[in-house]
Amino acid sequence: MPTHLHESTCRFECSAEQLVLFGYRNWSYGYRHHSETHIQESWALHTKHLDNISQAKEVLDALILFVNALSECASCPLRSKPTDQHSVTREEGLILGLISAIQNGNDHVAETCLNQLTCASRCWELSHAAERYAITLRALNQKLQPIPMSLIEQLLLSHQNVSIH
């Protein structure tokens, strides 16, 4: 996948990336706006990419806890793109970076993303929910590609839409 940060679109070809980005978008939008359609889209995405309903439920449950923690702990409004867009907002890039960093053992990237998403007093809450989500995904062979710190730094400096992978 391309690693150019300033491309206008990004193709998320790996199922793990699709689960994180599009699962997050659909669930969080559905939850905030009471949209049954978006909640069903999130469920359909999970059942499509995971082997069975039990695994889809397990990942979706971990995602729901993560989204709830984000909603309570976020230090700023969490912007997201429409579900059909392939570029990401700053916050979506940080979410992808956080989950990827946890799965790939990159503590520096994980800490940077956490500190940008929440205040210091709430980092442990968000970290716990993110770890559960990341580990659940990885246990089911849904591992995101590593996102280097240089891309996270560019994301933080840029006000444009970015392409993470």
Mean pLDDT: 85
In quaternary terms, these chains amount to single chain
The major sheet is characterized as:
none
The succession of helices and strands, N to C, reads HHHHHHH
Query: Any low-confidence stretches, pLDDT <50, length ≥5?
Result: 1-11, 161-165
- Helicity level, as a percent range? 55-70%
* Spatial shape: globular
Strand content: under 5%
Amino- and carboxy-terminal Cα gap: 5 Å
Counting DSSP E segments of at least 2 residues, the number of strands comes to 0
Radius of gyration: 14 Å
Describe the structure.
By secondary structure, the chain is mainly alpha-helical. The protein is built from seven helices and no strands. The chain has helices spanning 15-33, 36-49, 53-73, 90-104, 107-117, 123-139, 149-157. Helix 1 (15-33) packs across helix 3. The chain is globular.
